[in-house]
Amino acid sequence: MEYLLPLSLAAIVFNFRAALVLLALALAAVFWQGYVAVPAILFLTLAGLIALLRWRYQSRKGVAITCEGVLVIASVMLFMHWVPGFSTPKILDQVQAGPHSQPFTLYYGLDKALIPFLLLGALPSLFATSAQANVAPWRWGVLLLCVPGLLLLAVALGGLAPELHAPVWLGNFMLANLFFVSLAEEALFRGYIQRRLGQFTGGLPALLITALLFGLAHLQSGMLMVIFAGLAGFVYGLEMER
To answer: Closest Cα to residue 113, out of 232, 6, 24, 229?
Structure first.
């Protein structure tokens, strides 16, 4: 499971059929291990059937909009951990990155990691990129500088403090954040919400609204995290507006 689900997510933009096969194997593995129960399997099966309807009848506007709306609601339910039948495997328990770091516990959020599959059913062009000819190099420079700039801002606000470390569990941490957190969040907020809002409000309003929603999604971690996540969401969203 630890690698099958990330592999299926990595394959989703290259070979969708292979990604589905890997996803089925991953779900079978976590079901066997007891991390996914029957209610979750039924939920995902129903979502898959709705996605098939969305793809098959995409020319019928009413059916397509209804199916898309249901899939988006299902994705939000996964994001909020509201779907019964999922349990989160504990990978790290009260570990510290360094002697001055706060201890933390790491879980693999299986339900959240499935969001890209549902959203791809809702929006077939979720991972499609439009051809952008002659993108100005300075735009990339600004985006690359924004990332360390945000980290420096977090240090200035007291949310972070520099501490060099290379714990043995760094690989698990990177795997969890890339495939079980970041990919799902980017698919939902930038891939779907910002893109769909942009079709109605235009680029800049969609960028600002999505960044605000992304910040508020981290409210349980405190206002400092809301501010930092909102600014980070704005920077991430800029890449789509290049």
So the answer is: 6
Locus of tokens 């929006």: 123
How far is the C-alpha of 207 from the C-alpha of 242, rounded, in Å?
12
8 A C-beta contact, residue 12 and residue 116: yes
Q: Per residue in 198-240, pLDDT tens?
A: 888 888 899 999 999 999 998 888 888 888 889 888 888 877 6
Sole residue written with tokens 């709306």: 69
Instruction: Give me the phi and psi of 46, to 5 degrees please.
Output: -65, -40
User: What dihedral do alpha carbons 37, 77, 124, 50 form, nearest 10°?
Assistant: 60
Q: What are phi and psi of 91, to 5 degrees?
A: -95, -45
Find the Cα–Cα–Cα–Cα dihedral 202, 208, 211, 217, rounded to 10°: -100
